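Work package 3, deliverable 3.1, input record:
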Amino acid sequence: MENKLREIRERVLAELSEARGTSKLEQIRVSVLGKKGELTGLLRGMGQLAPEERPRMGQLVNDVRRAIEEELEKKGAELKEIEKNARLEAEAVDVTLPGPERSAGSMHPMNIALNRMVEIFTGMGYEVVEGPEVEYDHYNFELLNIPKNHPARDAQDTFYINENTVLRTHTSPVQARIMTTRKPPIRVICPGRVYRADEADATHSPVFHQMEGLVIDENITMADLKGTLDEFARQMYGEGISTRFRPSFFPFTEPSAEVDLTCANCHGAGCRMCKGTGWIEVLGAGMVNPHVLEMCGIDPKKYSGFAFGFGVERVALLRYNIPNLRYLYENDLRFLTQYR
Amino acid sequence: MKVPMKWLRDYVDIHMTAAEYADKMISTGTAVEGLDKTGEQFDKVVVGCVVSCVDHPNSDHLHLCMVDVGGEEPIQIVCGAPNVHAGMRVAAALDGAHLPGGVKIKKSKMRGEVSNGMLCSGPELDVPAGLYPHIGDAGIIEIFEDVAPGTDVKEVFGLGDDVVDFEILANRPDCLSVWGLARESSAVLNEHFVMPEIAVEENGKGRFEDYATVRVLDHEACPRYCARVITNVKIGPSPKWMREYLYGAGVRPINNIVDITNFVMLETGHPMHAFDLSRVKEQTIVVRKARPGEKLVTLDGKEHILDETMLVIADNENATGLAGIMGGEESEIENDTASVLFECAAFERANNRVTARKLGVRTEASGRFEKGVCPATAMEALERACMLVNMLECGDVVPGCFDDYPHPAEGKTIEASVARICRLNGVEVDGDTMEDILNRLYIDTERVGDTLTCEIPAFRQDMDSEADIAEEVLRMYGYEHIPSTLMFAKTMPGRKSPTFAFNNRVKSALVGQGMYEILNYSFISPKWIDNLGLDADDPRRNCVVLRNPLGEDTSVMRTSMAPSMLATIASNLNRGNAAGRLFELSKTFAPAADEGELPAEHQTLTIGLFGPGEDFYSVKNAVVWLLAGFGVTAEIAKGGDNYYHPGRKAVLTVNGARIAQLGEIHPDVAEKFDIDSRVYLAEVDVDALRPLEADFNGVKPLPKFPAVTRDVALVVDEKVEVGAMMRTIQASGGKTLESVKFFDIYRGDKLGAGKKSVAYALTFRAGDRTLTDEEINGSMAKILKAVESAHGAELR
């Protein structure tokens, strides 16, 4: 029996070392340690041994069994690792194969720019307010110091609905609405659609967007206006971009300014985009005309304020290097899908 | 306004180039649109002397000319003009010359003979007869001045001067004149502005009253009317310097009298009119309002029917001209005109503007009157014209004049505070500097301590407050001195309006679904609304209409955004974009019941899906997911507008209120928008959705007990809706039915025709115990019974 045990031990250990695959291991385990396995059979035959032999033989059988089990486990782990590696290798994919197509989606570039502008100004404590797009002449013009039959109306070709109603030509009427209904301090921005009777071309659109800003408080100065717009320019276009003010005329501000920004393309060195000047005309601004304050029920002796009005499309055109304003209203997916 | 630099330099010293000058003007608030030179339309054209002229051997009309162009040898030029002859001085375009219209002159052969250039006519150089009187109708220009061959013809014609094109803004009508700009320039450059001394030699016979009668009946519309009579008029060309100035300013020289009126208008800003006095009936001029229905033919030959608000120039009976806008045909200056009445008046700007608009006539004069012409200087302008008559010796100025100016404009005085100006501008400027700046601008200013007392001259109609003074100070001191500060003020809560914030969230959700935002015009063609095939009484047929649209295609405010979306999809398909997911969130407009009220503006969302992979369910999901993001679950039922596919459209309601409709677009409607593939639209009422957003106020605890899932396949008639059965299951499943999910639909021969099998996964769970099989079986039995009685469903 001892010989038999030795023989089993040597044979099985040899078999195990040769085994290629976990299924072979299982087969060996069953044939030796299974219910009908060789070693199990030997153990069962112990009853026939002399009682004094039994402890020693039991011990021997168990030794053999432990040795086989240990080897089984060791070999098993080894083979599993090999099999796993083989599987992982077989499962490799072509990483350059494109996945299923999915449309990415994006907001319109005008709104991407507008949202950025709104973020910058809300960050400076401005509140977004809105107003109607079909507006009374009273708010669109008269409260802004542009009486009926005044030549300043020529600067804005207006769509009329009737004698007293227009498609707003700017977002400034929202200012007038705010000033007539709120008390200072006022700090608002008014984004929205505006309309001018201009034929569409590379720089004009009969429908476009503006963002108006209005601040009314005590001791507000033109320098504060410049500081505010400089801060905007830095946040929108990057460090090193600032503003240049040129005197101009708007009926609702006094003093008024056309505001240029450092050309973001050449950083002021002069290029084709800025026609060599280093500056790009972006918006109009100024100190709110005391007449306007008065008409809206705000005491011009106590309060002063500034207002500015951006053309949002213009900001977007400059920000994203869009060559033609018409692109924005053609809604061609080949254009829209470029934004993110 | 175009002004030749030479003309400006007559009145103010400008010691710099035109470009440097333009920069100075821009930086102080006078916008410049561009810098030009007169005669830029051609180059390399010189005075030539035709030495010999013989017939071309191979042509019956061409000539071979030997032309001395200042070189060592005369050159041969072939010329076809009938008036060319030996000994003539001509304008010769040399090899390499550029002529108007993109013409380039090259040495070439014409019918076998070499031609080294071209002899030019007036039109070929775009030089009008008025500028150079020897430009005739027939043939090439003959130059009579004794100038050396080879001289640039621009010198002969008086071309080559710098011209500044100013853009004068509405607040500065005084700068719509050479004098006004010279005055402004003198302030900017700190130079003297020297006005010519106005002195008229009244060398005519008799007095004004002997020749003409003027009556002004409406002083409100005509605050001032001045007139003078010129006799012994000799019509002829005006002198070269005047023609050059006019041409440079963009005005065509005509004859001395007309040129004087134009010259004075440009120089002083006062539009003038010259009447042929002999053709004015009874030599009487009446300034009055038109009679209703009164007719008038203006000198452009157009007939106008007038109303009682319009100011006219009339004789004793009939209107002969539109005051300040356009004269009549009858009294136009002709070559035989012998006596002239000069009118220099001020017409009220609003009245002038309204009349010009109503009649659709806009002229240089009307443009100036509506911007505002200062009545105070009208007489000065008239005297300037008479002075020029003296100078040009083209007539005799009759002693005496007519001047009706009952209410002379009063000067204004503005008091301003140095400290307040500094505070408003945010720039420290001392009182002395302010005083100096204002005085330079002809605003007589005296300062006592902090107070500036400013006498505003009549021509500065724009100035009436301290802020105006602040602006004058700042623009002359220099905007570049404005520091950059952030305001020292109360902290304010920056925030978005609820609508703006909500719209942005809607847009983000849709972007997350792979959609692209589009922007369309708010006004559309009424045809587009028709294309939708709405019922005759549908409110969307009632649009806000633009009174002055750019065209029919953009003439009504949209009541529905569906047409714009369909047009966008069509144009994308046209451009080869075969698939797309689009949305637009904007406003629709509905007219108010009362005309005096503003239209209702409604935030509306339109989704448009097209291309492979899109179907009814993708557009349905788009909306369902969007709503889910706001915690809103809608009832979905068949229905919707007729422009959707009758079997593939649905309306979504919440608490009975409709918030959206969606579906496949009806092929007939798609065709009307030139779309021949399937497109899917959804329209969501964003204003209705916004208040429905469920307040998210906390999570539910995670379940402690396990769930049991039972799948069930139910065979029903084809017409039974999956959603209806689902609602029955939910209603009958009891408290422990946690969720019902549809997962499959099967049709096959085994089920029989007109039948389908619908599979649902039912999940049961109780919050306080593990459910037993018996409990679940009980629930299932109830559910099966309910679906059987409600829908005839059988367990498969």
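Chain B touches chain A through 92 residues (CB under 8 Å).
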